Amino acid sequence: MSRVKTLQALFKRYRRPGDIVFAWFALVVSVVLLSQITDQTVWRDGKPVMAQPRFWPAVSLGGMAGFAALHLIGSALSERIEGRWQEVRLWFASLEFAGWFIAYAIVVPYAGYLPTTLVFAVLLCLRMGYRSRGMLLAAGVTAVVIVVLFKSLLKVNLPGGRVYEVLPEGLRQIMLTYF
Amino acid sequence: MENLISGLEILLRWDVGLALLIGSIGGVIIGAIPGVGPAVAIAILLPATFSLDPIVGLTMLLGIYGSSMYGGAIPAVLINTPGTAVNALTSYDGYPMTQRGEAHRAVSLAYSASFWGGIIGILCLILLSPVLAIIAPMFGSREIFLAALLGIILVILAHRGQIFAAGLLAMFGIFLETVGLHAATYTPRYTFELTFLSSGINLIVVVLGLFALSQAFFLLIEPDSSPDAKPVRGKMSAGIKELLGHKRVATVASGFGVILGMIPGTGEFTAQFMSYTYAQKTSKTPDDFGKGSPEGLVASEAANNAVPAAAMIPLLALGIPGEALTAMMLSVFYVHNVIPGPQLFQNNIDLVYGLYFALIALNVIVMVFLLFSTNLLTKVIRIPTRFLGVMILLLSFVGVYSLRNSLTDCMIASGFGVLGLVLKRLNLPIVPIILGMVLGGIMEVKLRSALPRLQSPLDMINRPIAAILFGIIILVLILHVRTMIREWRAHQVDEDHDLHDAQQR
Fold first, then answer.
1. Is B23 helix (H, G, I), strand (E, B) or coil?
2. What is the ipTM of this complex?
3. Quick check: B366 and B374 in contact, CB under 8 A?
4. In this complex, is the C-beta atom of B459 within 8 Å of any C-beta atom belonging to chain A?
5. How far apart are CA B324 and CA B504, in angstroms?
6. Structural domain of B463
7. Residue in B closest to A26 by C-alpha
8. Nearest chain A alpha carbon to B57
9. Measured between CB atoms, which of B158, B178, B188 is closest to A60?
10. Which of the pair, B349 or A101, is modelled with greater confidence?
């Protein structure tokens, strides 16, 4: 990190590879959304413009499209930064972890919060390249701590797993309430 | 006086005390880990606090907010990586001090300056309360609308060099807030006939996606690293004595923190920079700045710790958050049907005093904790980044799913997580989206309720405070244009830096 000399320099943010891809994406999304304004909002006769249900979507989407266009012009006129598509590939790589997150959310109501968290913590650690027994143990212990903290102590609103239904009566109640 | 006592009584409740202890100590630990930060922690904990009493939930979140910067100073000083965004300038002088074998001096001085700033910020908040109680009721719908508009403008203009992107993202935030049924006419807006969109896009889901999940994705796609922070030897209380030699710098820096903390969109970052510049200009040894100057360290840490208390001023008095963390706290108020704003000072003043006392207590707790546990925290810094990513992912699930057990929320949060990752990779700001959502909602509601009393558009600014706010908006815009013209004429050479990377956490 270089030493910053002025307030202006401090507040400046600089372009990174892939900026123009984002700029195009933002402009297309804004324009597509704006083109839907008559279908997706209504106009009520007799009401002042600023009280219309359409007013704020129009202001925000109009602003979005305007700023997106200016951002794109700025990007297009700036010097090209190498590594654009490599960067975009990294963005797509994050979809794998979004998939892990959604899979985790799908499994919890069936397999229960404690078993799912434990299994996902260890599996994700393996996926991330950790092989040592210490790291895998740490993942397991942390998963249990998370469950105990949120479900057992703070009693956050998480469903009991359907798999718990097959457990013996006393244990089933404990698992449904605390884990 | 009665209100003061009932405020103190609130703090003496065991559950409030426990929440404060957990929040304060948890905040220090979270602040000390580069890659987590208070925004991630508050976003994850937010839904868990909904089932708690408002004062208990708020105290816990306030604890994290107020204490994370203390912890953030440790990696800034020891490994040249700010633990939180606002410790960026701390590393400028803290790390060179570590390099020349003065890590202990730097860390203890950072704690002491933070404590000084924190306490001055709270004292200002307490002293300003009677004034706020008088001024806040003068804010009607049109004044709050203009204040929120000013907030949006400042948030956009604060992102110099990326104003178009910041504007785009703020407008996107305002748009997100409009999705769903229109409150006054019950007509759908951008629901695309999808039932889950009828109730709108939940702010907490967006916050969790943009701050927590995106940070998990960010850490998971990067190569693994484990920062190595060496233990610090010596008595941590030594810094208090040294700080007394820099009273002037610490007090002025705290003043900057208080003033800029109150202004939406500016906050710790500007306060820190202005006080650093002030300290350098008035120092007898200005050349030492950036090379391990204790004054620079004091200026930076005192300024950023004065901000949390000051940031509570617009939140409590007007219901207007100035940055992402107070925007998240606003949702805790709303969930419990405690509406921050002018009425809060009339109807729930004991809650306000309770929060003030909580702020004082958290500074004391954190200071005592740090005097004995700094070396323990240097071990926490070493947690591998990918492991952290896994844990943030698991914790994000608690936040999103516990809201209403909805898989759709998890999918929406994942979408925002990917968007947040792209923005972080591009060095673009996330905060304008959140503030756009919150301030956009406020602007729509307040403009709608102001409209029936307006005969002409000029009536919008025919009251003194409204006129002042309008004047400030115009002044801010003129000053911005003037600065742009000056910069254009000066042809300053651009200096690229990664300072804002940390701002995303």
1. helix
2. 0.91
3. no
4. no
5. 10
6. 2-504
7. B168
8. A154
9. B178
10. A101
